[in-house]
Amino acid sequence: MLNIVLFGPPGAGKGTQSQKLIDTYSLIHLSTGDLLRSEIAAGTELGLRAKTLMDQGILVPDEVVIGMIDTKLKENRNAAGFIFDGFPRTVKQAESLDSLLDQNNTAISGMIALEVNEEELTKRLLLRGQTSGRPDDQNEELVRKRVQEYNTKTAPVAGYYANQGKYHAINGIGEIEEIFTEICEIIDSYATQLNA
Ligand code: B4P
């Protein structure tokens, strides 16, 4: 199986690039942000709890997102692979993902990290906030809080995959199409290794 972690701070382009990747590769796209927003839209108890945290730019508890991913992996046992978008966001989530995949006799092929500086992230998210209706994109203080959450809780996940020799960073600033081409080159190299 081809299992890709698309990594980066909020606004780095994970969701944007995932949409293009699912058109190219036959992989299942799992975005914890999208899954949580679906729960909010459906008005579930999980959604109501998550909304309070997301609206403050704070990460949702590990158990909640790990549970959602576990369910999705079980629903898609015969998939060719997955694109994990916005997950794992803590080292605990990364460890849990490894054991869930191991139970299915598979593993992460690699992590692709999109590198974008805080000024550009803030600009992109506030711009999206003008049309997205997402409460967490609405003001600069909240956007900076999300970047701070990333720096303290999520950035260490890069080291977790680097220790496994699975970390690949690319510049996330530039034309969306050019960034997409670079990501595809890395994914194609994973696929070649798998088939070797
Ligand atoms: P997410 O839904 O994952 O949201 P995100 O990181 O803000 O967005 P994304 O990274 O996908 O946006 P993109 O760059 O594509 O998370 C939202 C919240 O959910 C979190 O804050 C947290 O509370 C919670 N959550 C989610 N997963 C969790 C987990 N695992 N654990 C705990 N909590 C979790 O796009 C941003 C903008 O940039 C777009 O407008 C796009 O058009 C633009 N853009 C993209 N690429 C560009 C480029 N190259 N140039 C210019 N603009 C570009």
From TrEMBL:
Region NMP: start-end pairs: 31-60
Residues that hold AMP according to the record: T32, R37, I58, L59, V60, G86, F87, P88, R89, Q93, R134, R146
Pathway assigned to this chain's UniProt record: Purine metabolism; AMP biosynthesis via salvage pathway; AMP from ADP: step 1/1
Stretches that traverse the bilayer: none
GO cellular component: cytoplasm
Main localisation: cytoplasm
Protein name: Adenylate kinase
Organism this protein belongs to: Adhaeribacter pallidiroseus
The encoding gene: adk
